[in-house]
């Protein structure tokens, strides 16, 4: 899957963004694969939990 294709041509001065984006992409891809029937709302909650972001409902 090439959801991170644009990260392969990152200029050297944006490498910090690359090191953040690639793990985030990996989490998002895995969450999507393991929750194919989840709603967008549920996917957001799952991803935020994976990224250790507090979700207030």
Count of all domains: 1
Q: Compute the number of helices.
A: 2
Task: Specify the biggest β-sheet.
Answer: none
Radius of gyration: 13 Å
Share of β-strand residues:
under 5%
- Mean pLDDT across every amino acid position: 76
Q: Secondary-structure element order, as H and E?
A: HH
Which ranges are low-confidence, i.e. pLDDT below 50, for 5 or more consecutive residues?
Answer: none
Looking at the structure, what is the overall shape? elongated
**Number of beta strands:** 0
Helix content: 40-55%
The assigned structural class equals: mainly alpha
Gap between N and C termini: 33 Å
Verbal overview:
This protein has 57 residues and is mainly alpha-helical. It has one domain. It is 54% helix and 0% strand. It is built from two helices and no strands. Helix 1 packs across helix 2 (40-50). The longest helix has 20 residues, at 15-34. The mean pLDDT is 76.
Topology (SSEs and partners):
Blueprint (H helix, E strand, L loop, with lengths): L14 H20 L5 H11 L7
Helix pairs in contact: 1-2
């Amino acid at each position: 899957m090439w959801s991170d294709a644009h990260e392969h041509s990152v200029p050297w001065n944006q490498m910090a963004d690359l090191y953040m984006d690639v793990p985030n992409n990996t989490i998002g891809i895995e969450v999507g694969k393991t929750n194919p029937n989840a709603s967008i709302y549920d996917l957001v909650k799952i991803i935020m939990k994976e990224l250790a972001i507090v979700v207030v409902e």
